[in-house]
Amino acid sequence: MPKHAYKDSSLLRLLHFLDEHSTSDSHPIIPHHAEVNSLHSYSAPKHSSLRKASVLIPIIKPDKEGVAKIIFTLRSENLNSHAGQVSLPGGSRDASDSDDIATALRESQEEIGLDSDKVEVIGQLADLILPSGFCVTPVIALVETELTLNPCPIEVAEIFTAPLALILDLDSYTRSTVQFQNKPRTILEINHGKYRIWGATAAILYSLAAQLNAFSSG
Q1: Based on the structure, what is the number of domains in the chain?
Q2: Structural domain includes residue 209
Q3: Does residue 134 contact residue 53 with C-beta atoms inside 8 Å?
Q4: Sign of dihedral through CA atoms 149, 155, 156, 157?
Q5: pLDDT confidence of 30, banded at 50, 70, 90?
């Protein structure tokens, strides 16, 4: 189906936004929203010590009802970090990865069994520096509607989806305060049924939603 024929208005807005910001070089095409990438609320690691990672924002093409959805994972309770939290598929850069996209695709295949031939990369966001010492590059992609996903039982407790329209609606997000490095820090979160999407995952998605909103209002 041609992209302009999709019925999901949120997806059409996103595709138009990415088309307008396309670039021929390898640099990220969208800067992160200042509110979610500011470093004043914690002591950020020095740039030289950052570890590279990538996540995939996998958008399932609209279904018969015309609704596009994002794939999320619920991390296993047995993991050493971020156990039981909602995340996007992704992970650390491997020596065999040629670039950020390769990392996102490899990790998605390992975590949820998403085959790269079912994926069409349509954009990247700028790097997000995390207090944990990771420099994360989000990669945006469309994936085929007919999918069979197989979660890695060691890493993933559950796979679920949320409507793209919900994620791109700024009114879906709320703010709360947590303690980090003995200081209060404001975080973004979004609730979808029994799932709480927060932390870096919410920051990445809010950044995209904020930029898309600014573009549509301009």
Answers
A1: 1
A2: no
A3: yes
A4: positive
A5: very low
